[in-house]
Design a protein that fits this description.
Elements lengths: L3 H8 L11 H14 L16 H5 L1 H15 L8 E11 L2 E10 L6 H59 L1 H12 L8 H23 L22 E5 L18 E4 H6 L11 H47 L4 H10 L1 H4 L2 H17 L4 H8 L8 H28 L8 H33 L4 H4 L10 H27 L4 H4 L2 H13 L8 H15 L8 H11 L2 H15 L2 H4 L3 H4 L2 H29 L3 H24 L3 H26 L22 H14 L4 H4 L5 H36 L11 E3 L5
Helix pairs in contact: 2-5, 2-9, 5-7, 5-9, 5-12, 9-10, 9-12, 12-13, 14-17, 15-17, 15-22, 15-30, 20-21, 21-25, 22-25, 25-26, 26-27, 27-28, 28-30
Length: 784
């Protein structure tokens, strides 16, 4: 049977862990009470000479008399052992909070320990009540705002529909008014112009009245100023994105993340297209935003409901343990207080959940409750034993094929014979691309496994949909399948070469493998993890167009992965040139290597990941006005400089460039190490209770953190190899480069865990368990 402490740890909301009742602490206090109740060891005095000898001799008689009197004078009701008093506190201004304080009515033999236990129990009860009340108030406020947003949206949709009908019905009458105006000469203006002005003014008033009915107030609404044309100016702003993405909870993702629509332009410039800002497409985008906000609200209410139930069970369990240890029936009286407390007695959460269900069903699911529940309560993916089976199967196949490849490569002299240089220059880089990609996928699977094992809520951090988020078994399956396919292609390639097939035909195998990979990646059918594939493509698009897209956690996290895959990108350059120059036919590997464009592209490719990441920092600084992002940008600029200098030194090995490599690389490495340990991991805090770490740690063994710091430090200085050059021959230099590239991928996978762990702890510190979705309609004053 699983202990409740383990069950509670597995079911509680990770971001709200500190707000839950501290079950383990209360359990330890009960153990202290149990220890204090144990009889003291016998005295060394003989019984006859003991000072309390008479007490011990007549103790059985005294116990019997006490039992008889209890039975004789006891009533049917159990006497109250403790009294829980409730007082109100208004320390936080007008907000009145109820504080519970327990007093013992009957004395216990271990009075001090019992008093301390109930004092701790009162603290936990007050903590749970206060947190529940704050979150309940927050969610109720969100619900009121969303209902107002929905009313505004309904009014705008109705106005848009009515306007379309009026435009269709009034087109003929408008033409007749224009023709009569041309035949008449009025000094005050033609009837057509007056009619148009009156129509625009009435349309404006209609919109204003519709919004004001829903509580949207305008600045100086009573005395609105007017433009030169006599049309009123307004101060409400409507933010509606140009497009809203659908998969993986990406949120509003568009080149202009939110288009600020001033109603002044909407009303005052209808001829210039201002009236076209509120279109059906933008209304649909606003509807998607409100729908997503309702889903997040419902999810938060569900978490708060779970919070209440788990805490109620914890209080019940701990009080029963106290009764068992103390031999008293104290749980009944205290549980009555717990059941009357705010977190269990309040029904606002349940009523608001029912209201959200009915609203969502009516407005977003065409009154189809089953369809609405698919959005509000998405089914969690269940682990499949078939996935585990295939992971094991492909792992075994990979190990077997890799062993065969090593034997065939040794027999054919691929890594020893100088005659096989063309293989290392042309075919091997293609396979290296897939090998590094497979290794990165495997490391990502390890990350997912560790995050799940340590209860780090990575789906919330990356804003993944719980129904389509990749699990660690799926990541391992993709990685092992990919590795098996790559090694299998390498084995077939060597076998066909040894069998005497034409080199022109055999060397197309890497190209076929690359073509299959691209086809699977962009396959539109719902197979091969389509949500994950499309999410990956969308993130790559956001990275390449960094300045034009709002940067989310998953975007800059993936961009950081690319900075560790520069060798892979360089191999992709070689692969592209290999097939475009048809080197697989001519076997002239120097065709690409000696080309000027090819050599210049090496700088561009090495700079690109750092440049994209720097652009993301600029965009985040622009959105958040946080100068830390500009400092972070400097880290990537220094890395770009160091990468460019190392490439130049590899071509021109002079003392001047050697000094430049040392200076630029040392500066970039120190910059990166500081940011890794202090900013990304949150470590090296000299005032922490855990020496040179941080106060909150997910891993219980602190030695893991010290070891990880050392590993990251060693792998960060792998660039020293470019100076020392531990190389024996041309073939081994390629193998060494591949080894260093693999170590960098492993370092990045190792870095990923602590980066997400630190982000998770930041969410825990602020109790962030529900996303805040931007809403389409808001006042200009709210942005100040």
């Amino acid at each position: 049977m699983v202990k409740f402490s383990k069950e509670l740890e597995a079911q509680l909301i990770p971001e709200w862990k500190e707000a839950f009742v501290n079950y383990c602490l209360l359990k330890k206090q009960i153990k202290k009470i149990k220890i204090s109740r144990k009889p003291k060891p016998a005295s060394l005095y003989p019984i006859a000479h003991h000072p309390y000898c008479g007490l011990y001799l007549f103790q059985p008689v005294r116990n019997l008399a006490r039992t008889f009197s209890d039975k004789l004078f006891s009533s049917s009701e159990t006497p109250e052992i403790l009294e829980v008093r409730r007082r109100k506190s208004s320390e936080n201004g007008d907000d009145v909070e109820e504080i519970y304080q327990t007093e013992l009515v009957q004395l216990f033999s271990e009075e001090d320990e019992v008093k301390f236990f109930f004092a701790r129990l009162d603290e936990e009860l007050n903590k749970v009540n206060q947190f529940h009340k704050s979150k309940e108030t927050e969610f109720v406020g969100r619900g009121d705002i969303l209902k107002k947003q929905l009313d505004i949206l309904a009014e705008l949709k109705q106005i848009l529909s009515d306007r379309k009908k009026r435009n269709l019905s009034g087109s003929n009458s408008h033409r007749s008014l224009d023709s009569s105006a041309r035949n008449s000469d009025f000094s005050a203006g033609s009837p057509g112009e007056l009619s148009e002005t009156q129509s625009e003014t009435s349309r404006t008033d209609e919109i204003i009245e519709a919004l004001e009915r829903n509580g949207v107030n305008f600045i100086n609404s009573a005395t609105r100023t007017k433009t030169k044309g006599g049309k009123p100016k307004m101060s409400l702003r409507v933010d509606i994105p140009d497009a809203v993405a659908g998969a993986d909870g990406g949120g509003a993702r568009s080149i202009a993340t939110a288009t600020s629509v001033l109603w002044e332009e909407l009303v005052n410039n209808p001829r210039s297209g201002g009236g076209d800002f509120i279109t059906r497409k933008k209304i649909q985008c606003a509807e998607k935003m409100i729908r997503k906000a309702f889903v997040e609200l419902y999810r938060g209410l569900g978490l708060l409901k779970t919070y209440s139930s788990l805490n109620m069970i914890a209080f019940t369990k701990i009080l029963k343990k106290f009764d068992k240890v103390s031999g008293q029936q104290a749980s009944s009286s205290y549980l009555k207080v717990v059941k009357r407390s705010q977190f269990t007695s309040s029904d606002k959460v349940v009523r608001l959940m029912d209201e959200v269900e009915s609203i969502f069903t009516k407005h977003f699911a065409n009154s189809d409750r089953k369809k609405a529940m698919k959005f509000l309560r998405p089914h969690q993916q269940k682990d499949s034993h078939m996935v585990t089976f295939f992971v094991g199967l492909f792992t075994g196949c990979f190990v077997s094929l890799f062993s065969i490849y090593i034997i065939l490569a040794h027999l054919s002299g691929i890594f020893t014979s100088g005659a096989q240089v063309s293989y290392m220059e042309t075919v091997y880089p293609v396979f290296s691309v897939f090998a590094l990609l497979s290794l990165h996928m495997f490391m990502y699977g390890c990350n997912l496994f560790m995050w799940k094992s340590t209860r780090i809520n990575y789906t919330f951090i990356f804003e993944f949909s719980p129904t389509t988020a990749l699990r660690y078994r799926d990541a391992f399956l993709m990685g092992t399948t990919f590795m098996t396919a790559v090694v299998g292609a390498m084995v077939i390639h060597l076998i066909l070469r040894a069998a005497g097939f034409s080199a022109n035909q055999v060397d197309t195998i890497p190209g076929v493998l690359l073509l299959i990979f691209i086809c699977v990646l962009i396959c539109p059918f719902d197979a091969f993890y389509r949500p994950t594939r499309f999410c990956f493509i969308r993130i790559l698009r956001n990275i390449v167009c960094s300045p034009f897209y709002k940067v989310l956690m998953v975007d800059f996290f993936m961009a950081d992965q690319l900075t560790s895959q520069i060798p892979l990108l360089r191999h992709l350059e070689s692969t592209a040139c290999y097939f475009m120059a048809q080197s697989f036919r001519t076997h002239e590997y120097n065709t690409c290597k000696n080309g000027r464009i090819y050599r210049e592209l090496a700088y561009l490719i090495s700079f690109s990941p750092y440049f994209w990441r720097a652009m993301q920092c600029i965009r985040r600084w622009w959105d958040e006005s946080n100068t830390d992002h500009l400092v972070n940008m400097g880290k990537y600029v220094s890395a770009m400089v160091a990468a460019g200098v190392r490439i130049t030194y590899a071509r021109e090995s002079t003392n001047l460039w050697l000094i430049a490599v040392l200076v630029s690389s040392v500066v970039a490495t120190l910059y990166q190490l500081y940011w890794d340990f202090v900013k990304d991991w949150g470590l090296l805090n000299p005032k922490s209770k855990n020496p040179w770490l941080r106060d909150d740690l997910v891993l219980k063994n602190k030695n893991f953190y010290y070891f990880s710091i050392a590993v990251n430090l060693v792998l960060r200085v792998a660039w020293i190899e470019t100076i020392v050059r531990f190389r024996v021959n041309h073939v081994q230099s390629h193998l060494l480069d591949f080894l260093l590239a693999s170590l960098e991928v492993i370092r990045r996978g190792h870095w990923n865990f602590y980066r997400v762990e630190n982000e998770h702890l930041n969410n825990v510190g602020h109790f962030r368990a529900v996303k805040t979705v931007p809403l389409p309609f808001r006042d200009m004053d709210s942005d100040d």
